Amino acid sequence: MREPKEKTSEIEKTEKPSNFIRNIIDDDLKSGKYDGRVVTRFPPEPNGYLHIGHAKSICLNFGIASDYSGVYHLRFDDTNPIKEEDEYIKAIIKDVRWLGFDWGENQFFASDYFDQLFEYAVKLIKKGKAYVDSLSANEIRAYRGTLKEPGKESPYRNRSVEENLDLFERMKAGGFKNGEMVLRAKIDMTSPNLNMRDPAMYRIINAIHHRTGDMWHIYPMYDFAHGQSDSIEKITHSICTLEFEDHRPLYNWFLDELEIYHPTQIEFARLNLTYTVMSKRKLLRLVSENQVSGWDDPRMPTLSGLRRRGYTAQAIRNFADKIGVAKSDSTVDIALLEHTLRDDLNQKARRVMAVLNPLKVVITNYPEEQTEELDAVNNPEDESMGTRKIPFSKIIYIEKTDFEEDPPPKYFRLAPGREVRLKHAYYISCIEVIKDEKTAEILEIHCTYDPKTRGGWSDDGRKVKGTLHWVSARHAINGEVRLYDHLFNKENPDDGDNFTNNLNPDSLESIKNCKLEPSLAESTVENRFQFMRLGYFCLDSVDSGKDNLVFNRTVGLRDTWARIQRSQAKKG
Ligand code: ATP
Ligand code: MG
Asked: Which of 409, 434, 469 is the last residue of a domain?
């Protein structure tokens, strides 16, 4: 079987439009700020699987670095031993590779820097810029104040350097229980920026870390680890989402006090999608509450879910380019993602025929034992994808919905006395409807075919209005087909912890015993198909087996995004 050809992206070859991030980099290159270097990073916390929002960040960080012939790092921010697992690290690596990026040797872990970070903390203690606090977590919260009220200084704030060093060493050695002490930066309890009110730098967690084992009893807070890790790796442009804007003064404070290398932090708006929740915490809840079959459930916005659903990496990269980067938060219509996907699949997918809800059609004037091999074009968009043979015989299946005994107006499919085209085959006319005597259910329909219309064309100029897909009964293979709808039934499902109330109960429909054209028996998970008139499909990489074909509908054919664009153009 032919593999669909990976077309190289047009977008990748053309100049990418400028944006505020590129402008900053251009300026830095001009001024020689980083000696012409461009080094970016993607810093996931390995506490869940990557989602399409992360893909935006990866495409941005890694895309920019490669466009500027720079370097990009993948760094795991593994500072919380309780929530992090090796499974997530493996999944993240697989997903970023799949997206099409190769970071070579540049894979790092924040835990690589635990010794260095500890030294940094000691340096701040010695400078009188950090202290060990014995207040409880609740007390610290209460002392912190609010946006309207300044905070209060901890009674432990003015411990001597010696006492702080001693306590901090004992924290490290495992001398205390979780939460008994924290190391805090000594900044300003009255700062209007809450992040500057003596934030925690180290906390006590007596747990096993996936890489450092039981070596440590204290772990750096994200805010203490993150900026310093960027600095250690000599990142030039530290691109992150908007919620870190308020943390920037703190990151700068640490770098200044430590007198170490300064990356430039640039914030951009995170991706939000309609009908989707994006936070890892919420996705984890869906998994652990069995609302979905796993992180890679084809309805999940995770990269593993999208991949299993049939998304191509190219489509996701194109989407990331299309949405661009902005400085203020907004929500992207999921129809745009699906539109981008269709664009890509349209070029890659082999057109095939499958009947999901079969209705038997007997062609009465067709010879009993005869089988014909008809030619079918694999993809009208791409001649190089060639043609294949599809078998035709006396009994075929069509979709139940393609026949109406009593057709409503504008119904152009099959009906008694009416002629339609079978795609790639013949014109057929319905002459009889056979029903169950008791239930009146339609059992089969009888048709005649016109042998002069082979290939689906008539040379006497006779026109038919409907073209149906079909499968030869004798040659059909059985398979299961899974149709998906949005996982949530609300455009913005993310109302706090009640978001699971907005789950769409009809997000998965499984149809067994579908009739598939025989060429589909040799499909592989890499293949992309358009089941004619039904949408784009691919094999399910988890549940499909040799004798049990399972196809996922990646996306339907109806392009709601194109419709939105057209109606906006009309209005405009
Ligand atoms: P979540 O909020 O989904 O749990 P996170 O920000 O906690 O995600 P991290 O592992 O810390 O997850 O994210 C790694 C990087 O991905 C960060 O730099 C973060 O800014 C970026 N990122 C996370 N979510 C999005 C998003 N929706 N759009 C763009 N970038 C994102
Ligand atoms: Mg985070």
From this structure: 469
